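Sample pair:
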Amino acid sequence: MSASTPPRSDGPAADRPTSAFTFRPMAEPAPEAAEAARKLFAGPCDFLKGVVAMDGLPPPDRREVCFAGRSNVGKSSLLNALTGRRSLARTSNTPGRTQEINFFALGRPDAGGGYLVDLPGYGYAEAPKAKVDAWQGLIRAYLAGRVSLARVFVLIDGRHGIKPADEATMTDLDRAAVTFQVVLTKADKTRPADRDRLIATVGQGLARHPAAFPELVLTSSETGEGIAALRTVVAGVLTPGRG
């Protein structure tokens, strides 16, 4: 790894999560950290390229985070909400619309900017099987081999919890020793009375995964719930020490 290549892990061994953690919702971020994150996301954020093969990846010269999840879990909507842009990432009600690894450049490189990466959805998709198999293979290769990948945000539909396809992806991340953090989407469609049960159930599932980060983030792209918290997490991973 060259001197200019960011470290693959987002912390020393002592900072990496283990199954001994109690999984809990993230607390509200400190105001100064939230404001620093807001400014980062209010700055430049541009589509860089869509990648269909590993040799098309941009140089690993910045830290990056990626967003993974089952088809139609709301990845593109969440990216748009995070950046305050309505059409940064294309949204669709058709599962499997995103069929490339899409890179977005956040912030200026000289100011510690990084990449946001939107992965194709895994699981069911309305596309030919050969094409689905190809992009799923690309996802696995990217997750296992990208040295600048600092954290994966695994999006899980808050109405349904962890599904087999989520479990398989998290197991792959365990094997690759890539830290991942669960983001529960569509929180506005989850009844408050069901939240504690959902969090407990998801936490039990994550306890089996040594690469799982112990804090969950509940979000809604519709109401804005959890967006400031997730921005703060992403900013802290991309630019350690910010806020």
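The chain is about 30% helix and 20% strand.
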